[in-house]
Amino acid sequence: MNWTQLLTDIAAIIAVSAPLIIATMGIYLSERAGVINLSVDGSMLLAGMTGFAVAYTTNNLILGFVAAALVGGFIAALIAYLGVRLRISQTAIGFVLALLCTDLSSFLGNPYVQQTGPAVPAWPIPGLTSIPVLGQLFFRHDAVIYLSLILVPLLAWWIMRTRSGLIVRGLGERPDALFARGIDVIRWRYLMVIVGGVLIGLAGAAYTLDLKQGWTYRHMAGTGWIALAIVIFGAWRPWRILLGCYFFAALQTMASRLQDNAWQIPTQVLQVAPFVVMILVLAVVNSLGAPELQRWINRLPMPLRRVIRFLTSPAPAALGKPFIQQ
Amino acid sequence: MKTKFVALRTPVIAMGVGIAITAVLLLLAGADVLAAFGVLLSGALTSPSRISDMLMLLSPLLLCAVGLTTSFAAGQYNLGIEGQMTVGGVAAMWFLRGYHDGSPVVLFWIGAVLCGMLMGAVWAMLVAVLKRYMHVSEIFAGLGFNFMALGLALYLVFGPWKRPGVASMSGTEPLADVLWLPTITGTRLTLVTPVLAIVMLAVVWRLIRHTHWGLQVRACGLSALASVRMGVPATRRTFEAMALCGACAGMAGALQIIGVYHSLVPNVASGIGLMGLLVALLVRADVRWVAFVALFFAVITSGSIQLPLALSIDSSISGVLQGLIVLAIIVARARRGEESA
User: Fold this and answer.
1) Which domains does chain A have, with CATH numbers?
2) Distance between CA atoms of A312 and A97, rounded to whole angstroms?
3) How far apart are the two ends of chain A, measured CA to CA in Å?
4) Can you tell me the distance from the alpha carbon of A20 to that of A211, in angstroms, rounded to the nearest whole number?
5) A86, closest residue in chain B (CA to CA)
6) CB contact under 8 A, A273 and B151
7) C-alpha–C-alpha distance, residues B42 and B229, integer Å
8) Angle of helix B192-210 versus helix B212-222 axis, rounded to 10
9) ipTM score over 0.85, yes or no
């Protein structure tokens, strides 16, 4: 493998993981606020289909993205109403909505199958593209990919370094403490889930209007579940989630590269390889964080313990638990 | 009497809401709403061959849903059901490949179904172990194992078990004709699958509702901690419930191979497990309603297959209708304060 080939591959990985990053950041926001939005897979399909349909009919990309964001936000608002206000099991409604929105996208999207619509244009940033290496890696993409690059640092800074970010973290860890300090937990959770849903909707449109242009039956089904898994893999930390997205995209790129391989493995099998790796990593990382193992881990030398601490980080304590105002 | 009437009313209203939203969607798509509902409800019942096709969907669906009521009773969201069905099919195919002319066919059928059940149970146990000892959510472990099962089936179809010369998604070399489960003349339906599905329904009903074991499983589902304090072996009961669910799914997968596909196809499960999850969400651990709800879902799903031809409407509307009804009923229950978190 030569140097230019490697650069092209990395640039491609950065590009293909853009929708995944946007979606995972949406999930991250919502889960940091203590609410699981399990509908991601269906939400992305329905939002992506709507985005494509609107952009196709109006020939306006911006309207397409706005429509997708609205759909994502609407489904999230429904989950917030049912899960946060009515306190129904978030797993149950999320799962049903995932299936429902998938079928809805097939039903409503039927007229738009195989149509050619508008697509996000490439937008190399003048001046910056000529920087060696970095220019090729980061500055020869389009607006959606730049958004994915900005989103992670922005969210990481907001959640970890600002007062309102602290409130968001509090929603997922100790909502009762926030309530005692006079913060309207329900309203904040609503807000965070909806903002998360908007990002998930945008991610759907990022597929249909940019990375996998157009619409087909169950266009990018499966990616939503991957995004949900990556957030767990990333242990609810933005930078590790980003790493997870790139890792997954790299595995997929490798899988398609190895298609004409010497191992005699059929190509279709390689396409499921990333999922296998993801589950294995989840198993190892989560079991390292298991309370049963803490006694053994505490006996290890300090540097090793640091590594394990970094690898394992618990889920937000109040994740999926409804808040009952006293 | 009055409370019973109220209890009956809310699900009925919820179903009405689900149907009304579906009607609006059909209107939006420019379809003849009444005709569409007519096809959905009766499309599967108009001819013997259509009824048999509906029963061919109903039987594995019932098996999955029955299994899932067990895992739901134990409080587990077994999203890995599709994978458990797939490996059940793989195991059955593995067993049947050992067939030689003149061997006792019935023994091979029984062996294949048992292999499928065993493999399905193992696949479900993997998820249960990952959840219990490695703290991986059963939802994501289950999904991961679905993809792994699909990978395994694809590998076999395109690799070691491929049709000589041509490997394709359409499956492996078909089984010898004698190994196909006999069908009712004129249809593709075999009676074995519906009968086994009903047997499993009765067995699971008895286990869950009328045995000490079932009581303990339900206790684990309500509160694992409380049941441990009461001396229930919660880990063991949860594992057993998951294994039983996997066995049901594996049986469904094996029967799809012997009775329907007659070769290993990659997509053994084809969404039946997910539909089973919808059924199970609707009935929860209440086994009495499983057959009724599964029948309703099977009728509208088979009926919807005629929609594109009869009225040029996309058949996914049946899935939309099912999802809306399940969602509406879950909400109705919550508003009655019956179910929270």
Assistant:
1) 3-311 (1.10.3470)
2) 30
3) 62
4) 11
5) B334
6) yes
7) 51
8) 80
9) yes
